[in-house]
Each structure stands twice: as C-alpha cells, then as structure tokens.
Amino acid sequence: MLSTFKIFTYAPQKPFNYTATPSSSFHAALLHSPFLTADADEAHLFFIPFPPDISTRSLARLVRELRWNFPFWNRTLGADHFFVHPSGIDFSADRNILELKKNSVQISIFPTVSGRFIPHKDVTFLPHAPPSLPHAPRNGTAEFLGYLKWDGKTEKELVEDLKSDGEFVIESQPSDHLGRVKSSKFCVFLYNGGVSWLPEAMAHGCVPAVIVDRPIQDLPLMDVLRWGEMTVLVGPTAGASGLKRLLRGVTEEDYGRMRRSCVSAAHHLRWNAEAQPYDAFHVLIYQLWLRRHTVRYARREPPNLES
User: Fold this and answer.
1) Which of 10, 39, 172, 241 is most open to solvent, judged by the fewest CB atoms within 10 Å of its CB?
2) How many angstroms separate the CA atoms of 287 and 254, rounded?
3) What is the pLDDT of residues 168-180, one digit of tens each?
4) Which of 188, 186, 225 is nearest to 206 (CA)?
C-alpha cells in the first residue's frame, strides 16, 4: 500500500484553513506524505479540499467546475473522490451535491450529525487526541465503577440518578480529570455529550461505556478497530440501575481483555506532528485505500446517425 497508493488533490479555489484540529492534522499530513501525486493519471483517489463553512451554492459550483474542467469526476460520478467536512454535508436537490454526498467518501468528526453519515463508504475520526499518551496504563484497584465528565446538559435525568450512586463520579469541571480516569474501571460517554477525551481514557485503560439511543454506525476507523470488543453500549432508558447492572455484569476476564484492547487501539487514534506508522493518519489512509476500487461508469458514445 505505501508504495503504490496515490492521491491527487485538486487546488483549492482560494487558500483556507480547516478549523477543526483533526481535519487540519489530516490535511497537513497528506500534503507532506508519499501518497500525494502530481500526476492525476496515476491516482487511485482524488481529494477535494474546501472550507468547512462553504455555502451550498458554492459547493455545488465547485463540483460543477470539477465536472467541466477535469475528466475524472464523470468517470465515476465522484465515487473515487473524497473530502473532509467536520460535521458532514447534508443531502441536497442539486445534482452536484447529491452526487458528492451519495458517491464520494466523506471524512467527518465523530459523532456525525444524524443523517449525514453513509455507513458503506464514509469514514470518521475522533476529535484530536492529546499529544502524549502512555505506553501502558498502570495497574491498580479502581476506586470507582464509572466516571463521567459531563457537559452539564445532556441526559440530565440519567446523570442526576448517577450522581446519587457512590460508585459513579460525575464532574463537569474536574480538578483532576486524569486522576479520575485512572481510578475508574469504566469511563462513561454520552454519545452527543462530548467524546474528545475518548483516546485518553482508552490509553489509560478506562473502558468506554457509551450511552446512546440508537445503533452507532459512525464509530471512528470501523474498518480497523473492533469497537464491539472494547466498549460497552447501553441505551439511556436503562437508567442508572441498568447501567450499573450492565457494567457489574462484565466478568473480570472480559474486562481485562477489553482493557488491553483499549490500550492497544488508543495509539491508532493518535495524531502526531509528523505522521508515524499505524497512527491515526495512516489508519485513515488505509481506510481510503480499502475504498480505492470503484465502479468506473462506461462513457456512452453518441449514436451514429449516418448508419
């Protein structure tokens, strides 16, 4: 893969910066990587850079210009193209945006806005991981069953129930966040309530327990990471007692296996100043590589009216 996979990037219409850290990290790493090629004919995929605050009209015009000015879009209707947008783009009646949405690979930040992620082709990455992660968490007896760094607004009723249980610690502005992570068996995450510290929790051996009210289809790097083997998913209707019962039901053997998987996977979520093998950039590139085989639509020749 490292020696053959090539990406051609279109020149942006005007200079811009990605505002979200993982988006800018990916873009910077791509521009300095051996995957980039100036020869579009040898490219497997084509990257379309555009600012995250682009208007629907401007995005439609951008795709239309690619269709008119380059031969590559029409070969696959955009299926061998990809783009980065933090929250994901929405569907539109405009043909150009519709093809971009339905055919091109979208890279967005987890969790994606509901309805903006297409599982068979799209990819997500987590908000930026901390610059330093431990090589191995320390072993010790956990003081708490679960720890939640709460945003102060999501799932208030459930959180109030958890606050009354001494086996859980709930804090909005913890004075010792890392200490809480290290002293808890499970780190509780509310699906729409902030997941930026997920890599940090995993690296320190705190197994994620994600509270979500629907099936999760946009977990980061799903082609590589086996999330089912290192996370606990629970619906909010289970309440505090249901969450506690579920976490208590995880055997020590299973918990140890999940904890080791978390620590191992955390390093694939790391963004480095200079991309390193098996880090977040290379795992994301691998997911793009898996999507390099696209159906190239045959160009229809005009009918011969003289025959």
Assistant:
1) 39
2) 28
3) 999 888 788 889 9
4) 186
